[in-house]
Amino acid sequence: MPTLGTLPTRQPELGLTFVSNCSAPTQRAEVKGVFSVTPEKLLAEGVPATLADGVLVLIAGTVPFRLRGRMTTVLEVLLQRMSREGSAGLIVNASPSPRQPYPQAIVDLAEQLNIPLLATTASAEQWRGVHEGIQQSRLTFAERRAAQLASLVQELPAQLADQRAMQRIADWLARALDVQVMVSEPDRVLVASPATAAEELAQAIIRQSVDGNGPDPSSGPHTQLISLGPSSAADTVLAVARRTPFDDADLLLLRHAAKLLGLVDQARREYRAASDASRAARNAAVELLLDGEVSKARRVMRNLDPGLLDPETARVFVVETSPTRRDAAARRCEAVTAGRALVVTDSRRHDRILVIHPIQAGEADDRVAVELTRLVAAFGAEASLGGSGVYSLSLLAHALHEAKTAQRFALHQPDSVALSVQDTDLVSLLPAHAAQMWARRLLTPLMQIDTQWELLRQTLPAALAHPYTVAARRLDLHRNTVTRRVARAAELLNKDFSSLTDRITVALALELVTHRELPEPPAGSLETEIPTLHGLLDAPQIRLWAEMLLRSARADRRGLLTTATAWLTYDAHLEPTARALGLSEATVRSHIRALEGYMARDLSGLSGMRDVLFALHLITGAPQLPDTSLELCVAA
To answer: Is 118:16 a contact under the CB 8 Å cutoff?
Structure first.
């Protein structure tokens, strides 16, 4: 779009020069067209009744200043009319000469009225088409600006609190005006486009010098600083810079963009304030729940999320991720559990999120667990999830402890998720390669002959877990066949299968060999010694599993773990156990049943007995487990 200052350089063939002083704001004025009139017509018909705003008045032809009195009068009237109509300037045709082309009276009046006086060396023919060219240029510019404004409006987000809205508007502005863009507060940069803009504009941000919507005088002619607030003391500032100067149209577009950015910034601040208040209330509710103050917590949450804490029971989940991603992860947890769970960030840990899922008693609602599991998978390897069982709201502190333990336990799981430690399969926790090596070494005597191994691998799992009669029926074999095969295996392994620990040890080895593939050894690892059962169980994740498995039973005043230790020591026989403890068999039986409830294990089965045996050994040191290293050496 041509201006009074750019027209001489854009169309040098016109030979335009300024005769009088022209201020910088006047030079930036838009030229909207050219009105051409001859001196003869001015003298004969006088000044035109109307002149369009922003036009240049060209007196085409030689001005007869010899008729100084009449022509000066007409020019004075013309200048007065031009001043009222807002004309851009007056041009007369003059050959190159040191002489002044205007009478001094006209020069003085033009300066008084602030109307630029220009001279041209071009002929009337050369001026033909200039007006139409200016009109076409203005039309093109108007269409481009309309497209830019429409594009800017498109960047306005559906929700002003959209986290990415400010960045999208900054990116658009950088493209539209070919500028460096930065929006900043006193202590941080909110957005920058391109990414290097913050460094480029750092020296230009001097907030004390920001004056309304004007540029910072100390930052150079090609830098603009615009406050996004209602006053010049506002914290948020839009800074833009480029190599070429800004014209009035550019500044207008900047102000439009600044208004949108200001709205987005205001919404961001208000949303943050509301979120902070909501977050503080939710954190307070969680603290009350952990202190057992259920009624107070319900009153806090009544306005935030009515009915959320109405159930009497709940599960607790712990999500851990990197500190830099925690807040974003918390927002995603809130989104996927909206209306069903209470999500807060842990004030004691910068990498932890707590999720409380109230559940109606008797209902099996695992939707929150499923959604959190999906999220943790999406977060990647740095995230993990631990969950508790269902607890009364008044016992939420216990649920949180269980969830934290489960989360530590989840770090050793393939999917980094442990929703219930008690339900976790012990075999999956063993160090895979070492466990396979141990199992294969232990079973080597059985595996040396293929036909023998095929028979024994089919018979032993059932025969070790059940009475031989039951095993024979399950395997569709004669009882004597089962007895003979078991005796042969015991002989080859040098085991006593009347001993519960021997049955458990061999059954574990069989499960590893027959149901688990031999994994590749860890990169760079070398087997320097034979793995032992004690070595396999001496792992942090297995100790955590044992602690969680026995935690509830240990709190029972009846001494359930003492009973369980004696019962396993006497190979799960009630009579010698009762005699050793000085209890009745009925009491021992009731203790075992209570232990089943606490541990969620069937203690009539070999796998349940195995879990209790290993957990007791790890936590209490009893019953003793056989050290298989010597036997393995003999077998080798």
So the answer is: yes
